[in-house]
Amino acid sequence: MTRNPSHVRLTDTLAAARMIMQAEGFKHLPVVETKRVLGVITDRDVRQHAAHLDETLVETAMTADPVTVSPDTSIEEAASVMLVKRIGCLPVVQNGGLVGIITVTDLLRALLDIARVHGH
């Protein structure tokens, strides 16, 4: 997982979300208020509102109530949830607050680490 990921707030504009995504190379950003994950905004969400990025708020374009996992969730379980639900990220929540995010890139890194350990 990526620890302490960048995030946006409900009242941020899509232009601000896009700037963070481009600067940091992310395709998903958790939407957080008072440490609670309220949604996820993706690069696809931003593209769908391309003509109105400056006036569209994250709240109107995000996926609300995203599926989340805990730090104890296994890699296999996280991968299974992402496949079954057809989602590209899982915010990681502990004690009600965001502590990380798991993306397909994180899963691929874990797979390569496992392959290296087994000498492949």
Walk me through the structure.
- This protein has 120 residues and is of the alpha+beta class.
- It has a single domain, classed as CBS-domain (Roll).
- 38% of the residues lie in helices and 25% in strands.
- It has five helices and six strands.
- The strands form two sheets. Strands 1-6-5 form a three-stranded antiparallel sheet. It has a three-stranded antiparallel sheet with strand order 2-3-4.
- Strand 5 (89-94) and strand 6 (97-103) form a beta hairpin.
- The longest helix is centred in the last third of the chain and has 14 residues, at 104-117.
- It is globular, with a radius of gyration of 15 Å.
- The two termini are 23 Å apart.
- The mean pLDDT is 95.
In short:
The chain has 120 residues and is α+β, with helices and mostly antiparallel strands. The protein is built from 5 helices and 6 strands; from the N terminus they run βαββααβαββα.
Key terms:
5 helices; CBS-domain; globular; 25% strand; three-stranded antiparallel sheet; 6 strands
Number of strands: 6
Shape, principal axes of CA atoms: globular
* Class by alpha and beta content: alpha+beta
Number of discrete domains: 1
Helix content: 25-40%
Radius of gyration: 15 Å
The number of helical runs is 5
| Assembly of the depicted chains | single chain
Strand % is 25-35%
